[in-house]
Amino acid sequence: MKFNLLFKTISLFMLNTSYLFTRAESINECNEIKENWGNYVSQCINDSGKASEITIKGGITQDLINKLATLSELDTLSFVYVPINDELNFRPLRNLTKLHSVSFDNEKRREYDPFRVRNKLLKYFPNLTRLEFYHVIIGKSALDEIGSLTNLKSVEFYKTTFDEDATFHSFKLLSNLKYLVIESYNRTLKRVSTSLNYLTNLETLEIKANGADVAFISHSTLENLQKLRTIDITNDVGLNLKRIGCLTNLVYLRLVCENTTSLPNNIGNLKKLKELSLYGNPIKTIPDTIGDLESLEDLYLADNQIESIPESIGNLAKLKYLNLARNKITSIPSSIGNLSNLQRLSLDGNQIEIIPDSLENLEKLDHLSLENNKIKVIPDSIGNLKKLDHLLLSSNEIESIPESIGNLESLQYISLSYNKVQSVPDSIGNLNNLQYVYLDHNNITSIPESLKNLSSIRVLNTSYNPIKSE
C-alpha cells in the first residue's frame, strides 16, 4: 500500500517536472530568435526563458524589429555595426518598458568607418537609463532626442564625429544624469556649452575634445555641479580654471590641456580632492594653497614650466605619489621630508643640484627618480630609506656613491649611468635584493668583488668605464 502511494507520488513529480521543462522549452525566446534571425543576432541571453540581453550584428530587418518589440523582459540591446536606414520603423520598440540600456557600436579594428545615428530613432527608447555610442556620426536633431530621454543616468560618446551644428543644449533636461563621456573624433566638436552646468546630479564628466571651446568650466554656473566627483578633460585650446574651487566635492581632477597657464589659489578649496593631474602646460607656479588639499594622494604636474615647489607641499600628509618631472625646478624644499606617506617621487628632467637630507624621513618611499638633473652629491642620509626598491640617478654630475648605499636593504634597481662616478663602495654587496645595476658611462676603474658575488643580480652594466683588467 505504502509502495503504491510512493510510486504515485514519484510519477506525479516526474510528470510535473516534465511539464515545467517542456513549458520552459516552449517559451525560450532566445531559441526562437536564433532560429529565425541567427544571421543577425550574435548573442541572446535568457533569464527564465525570457530574452534579457540581445546583440544584433551586421544588419537588421523589420520583422526582427517587430519581434524585439514582443520581448517584455528585454533589458539590454546592442547594435554592432548595424546600418539603420530610414525605411526601418522602430516605433514598436517604444513599448519595451524594461529596456534600460542601448548601445551603437560601429568600431572596426583597422579603420574608422562610422555610421550615422538616424534622426527620429532614439525617441523610441523612452525608458533608457544608459546610452552608448562607439564610432558614430551625430547631429543636433539626434542629440536633442537624447535630451528628451529624461531617465538617462549614463551617456557615453566614444570617437564620435559631431556635425557642425551639434550642441548639447538639450542635455540640461537630463536631471538624472550621473555619468557623461564625450570623445570627439578629429576635432569635429566645436563647443561644449554651459548647458552641462545644469546637470545637478552629474558625478563623472570625461571630455576628450581637441579644438573645442570648453566654455562650461569657466562659467559662473559651474557651481551648480556640487555632486561632481570626477573631471577628466583632454583639450588643446586651453582651460580657464578660475572657478574650479567651487567644486568642493571633487575627488579626481585630471586635465591634459596644452594651453592652461595657471592653477588658481582657490584650488585649495578642494578639501576632498585625492588626485590632481595636469600634464603638458605652460604653468610656471604652484600656488601655496596646494598645501590645503588635505585629502590629496596623487599629484601629477609633469611636463609644465614650473620653477619652484612651495614649502606648503609638506602639508600634504596623505600624499603617496608626486610627479614633477620635466619642469624647470632648481631645488627641493626641505618640507618634502614631512610627506610621511609618500611612496613614489619623480623629479626627472629638472635643474636640481641638491638632494635635501630631509628625504631620509620618507619611510614609505619605494621609488625615487631624479634622472637628468645637475646633482653632484648623493647624501649619506639616502641610506635611511629602508623601503626604497628603485633608485634612478642617471645623467647627473655625481662623482661618488656613499657607503650608506649598502643600507638600502629593499633595493632592487639602481641606475647611475652617465655620471662621473669613480668608485663603487664595497657596501653595495650588502644589497641581497639587488637585481639590476646600471653603472655605464662613468669613470669607474674597478668593480668590488662584493657586487660581483651577489647571487641576486640579473643585469650588471658597467660598459664605457675605464675598468682595469685584473
Automatic annotation (TrEMBL):
Q: Which residues form the Disease resistance R13L4/SHOC-2-like LRR domain?
A: 311-392
Q: Does the keyword Flavoprotein apply?
A: no
Q: Which residues are the signal sequence here?
A: 1-24
Q: Which InterPro entries match?
A: Leu-rich_rpt, Leu-rich_rpt_typical-subtyp, LRR_dom_sf, LRR_domain-containing, LRR_R13L4/SHOC2-like
Q: Which superkingdom heads the taxonomic lineage of this protein's source? A: Eukaryota
Ordered alphabetically, the record's keywords are:
Leucine-rich repeat, Repeat, Signal
What does the entry list under GO cellular component? cytoplasm
One of the Pfam families matching this protein, by short name: LRR_14
Q: Does the keyword Signal apply?
A: yes
The name this protein carries in UniProt is L domain-like protein
Species this protein is from: Anaeromyces robustus
